[in-house]
């Protein structure tokens, strides 16, 4: 056995070990308590796989000096951008960052297939084993790239969060996938055709845009999970193109987990994935209807910080219900401080987390973890709903559609969607800047419930006022 064979075998064993670590890391991410360890294990395995790849190409001497310059420059630039994002990007911007990560992953996978087909010595002689996964890689990767960029734009507010439906959009979204099939067959039969190659790239990029534009902001958690699954599929196809087992395994893990998460998010909204992709649901962020207590409708009961503080200070059980308004105000630390004050006073505190609260899967969990909220206080919808009737106070911070009792009745935009049973609490307080709608574009009946008090204020300011007021009562 030659030295080159020995190195190649060693690298394959390293790839196998890295793949095993990916599986274990993914398993650890099932629970917030072990998620950080799983992330560290997966990142370490990826670093090991990259180092093994560099060792292999160094031993085989297949990269020119220019290639090494590109490789090193890309690695340094990517590491620098990743470090900057980890330190500087706020938790409120995590959904946008995840969408950008999906775009980068899908785009990189597509470029692998494009580069492999263009650089082949005899592209016409490429077998189906390479050309078919290559064509699928281009389609999935390019759709993920452009679709994720549009999703990030919607989340950032650069693109309207409301569904953008132009004349002929539905027909176009039927014709473009048909073009994928024709383009894929063409490229498989004629791998040397640059017209087929570039045409497939262009059509896929266009479909990514037209697919995500009609989808409203309320569906962004599902869209992000779906595009994440697309990214994994594109990476797996790239693994087939390069004949790299580790890449195939890593891609399929991402694809499978993203697919499962997409299904869970869709089920949490009582909508099918197809219905989400068709789009046209909701209105995006609505303009404030009326700001402040003075302009609130007559049936709404405004309350002050002192009113709420008295209820909290003398409660035995309090359930906090966070939503995107908490993230937008960056008020997670103020909420954590208020909860800690109540806990220290002997009050039973918990957080009701709806699966689609926020703008990406797990958004509220990540946000509250940043504020060092104990994992034991975070409760999923099915676990916390039976506790609402025993809650003396349910404090809603920026959550809207996921608390709307109208979902229990047929004939409206969110009919059948599982919601948090906030209206069953003994007393309800909603912190909100105005009476503006949520993404579904309908009134929330919870706000006019006789048990509900509306505390019209910015979440960060309001929670700070509540902590100070509660401190006076319990101090």
From TrEMBL:
Membrane topology: Multi-pass membrane protein
Pfam families: PNTB
Main location class: membrane
Localization terms from the record: Cell inner membrane
Domain annotation NADP transhydrogenase beta-like: ranges: 12-467
GO CC terms: plasma membrane
Major enzyme class: translocase
Family: Belongs to the PNT beta subunit family.
Protein name as annotated: NAD(P) transhydrogenase subunit beta
Gene this chain is encoded by: pntB
């Amino acid at each position: 056995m030659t030295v080159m064979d020995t190195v190649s075998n060693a690298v394959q064993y390293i790839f196998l070990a890295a793949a095993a670590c990916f599986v274990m890391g993914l398993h650890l991410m099932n629970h917030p308590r072990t998620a950080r360890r799983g992330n560290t294990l997966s990142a370490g395995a990826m670093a090991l796989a990259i180092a093994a790849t560099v060792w292999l190409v160094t031993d085989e001497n297949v990269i020119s000096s220019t290639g090494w310059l590109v490789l090193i420059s890309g690695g340094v630039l990517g590491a620098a951008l990743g470090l900057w994002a980890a330190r500087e990007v706020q938790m409120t911007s995590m959904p946008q960052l995840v969408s950008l990560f999906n775009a980068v992953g899908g785009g990189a996978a597509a470029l692998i297939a494009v580069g492999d087909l263009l650089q082949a010595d005899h592209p016409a002689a490429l077998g189906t084993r390479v050309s078919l996964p290559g064509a699928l890689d281009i389609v999935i990767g390019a759709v993920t790239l452009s679709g994720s960029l549009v999703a990030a734009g919607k989340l950032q507010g650069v693109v309207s969060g409301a569904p953008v439906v132009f004349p002929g959009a539905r027909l176009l979204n039927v014709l473009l996938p048909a073009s994928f099939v024709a383009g894929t067959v063409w490229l498989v039969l004629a791998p040397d055709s640059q017209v087929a190659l570039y045409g497939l790239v262009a059509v896929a990029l266009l479909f990514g845009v037209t697919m995500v534009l009609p989808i409203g902001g309320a569906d962004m958690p599902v869209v992000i999970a779906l595009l994440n699954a697309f990214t994994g599929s594109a990476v797996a196809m790239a693994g087939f193109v390069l004949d790299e087992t580790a890449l195939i395994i890593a891609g399929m893990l991402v694809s499978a987990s993203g697919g499962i998460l997409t299904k869970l998010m869709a089920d949490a909204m009582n909508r099918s994935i197809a219905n989400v992709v068709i789009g046209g649901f909701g209105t995006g962020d609505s303009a404030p209807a009326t700001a402040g207590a003075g302009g609130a409708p007559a049936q709404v009961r405004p309350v002050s910080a002192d009113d709420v503080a008295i209820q909290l200070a003398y409660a035995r059980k309090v359930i906090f219900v966070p939503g995107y308004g908490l993230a937008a105000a960056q008020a997670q630390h103020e909420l954590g401080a208020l909860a800690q004050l109540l806990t220290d006073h002997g009050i039973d505190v918990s957080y009701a987390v709806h699966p689609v609260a926020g703008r990406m899967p797990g958004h509220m969990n990540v946000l509250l973890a940043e504020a060092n909220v104990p994992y034991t206080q975070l409760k999923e919808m099915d676990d916390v709903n039976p506790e609402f009737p025993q809650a003396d106070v349910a404090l809603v911070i920026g959550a809207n559609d996921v608390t709307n009792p109208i979902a229990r009745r047929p004939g409206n935009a969110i009919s059948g969607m599982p919601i948090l049973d906030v209206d069953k609490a003994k007393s309800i307080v909603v912190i909100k800047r105005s009476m503006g709608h949520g993404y579904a574009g309908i009134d929330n009946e919870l706000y006019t419930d006789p048990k509900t008090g509306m505390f019209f204020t910015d979440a960060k300011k309001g929670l700070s006022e509540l902590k100070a007021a509660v401190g006076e009562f319990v101090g």
